[in-house]
Amino acid sequence: MREGPGAHARSQPMSAAAGRRIFDSTRSLFDYDALLTPLELTLRRVRDYVGTSAYSTIMNGIKTVLNLPEDTEIQLSTGGGVQVSGGPIDEPIPLEGWADGFRLNLAWVVDFFGVALAGDAFAGDAKCFAADRGGR
After folding, report:
1. Under DSSP, is residue 80 helix (H, G, I), strand (E, B) or coil?
2. Cα separation values, 126 from 76, 117, 120, Å
3. How far apart are CA 23 and CA 9, in angstroms?
4. Could you report the per-residue pLDDT of 41-61, keeping only the tens digit for each?
């Protein structure tokens, strides 16, 4: 039985990330050999959109899918790495310190949004990705 979404998915080399589709991200749910784009690389690409509606849509979408509090921050560390803070957590904690389930689900969800970003899904009307937080 599978441990969870993308539980055994591995990251793929940066050069292999070109030409991916949403299907490639979801395939990792069922195919143990499916590869994900490296989490930090995808977040660095998303960071290029800070201040745009695409950035807000992606970050809010990630928090919604993972059921994270609205004040959660997913940050890139100086010198490399990813840190998560918010909710009951006062200070950023390196992603390496989180449980495998959270890390792997985060990687899968970020990969999904990264593929959508690479495919210009946010160029026009991105209502299909708009996060409805249900009054949270």
Report:
1. coil
2. 25, 10, 10
3. 14
4. 999 999 998 998 889 989 999
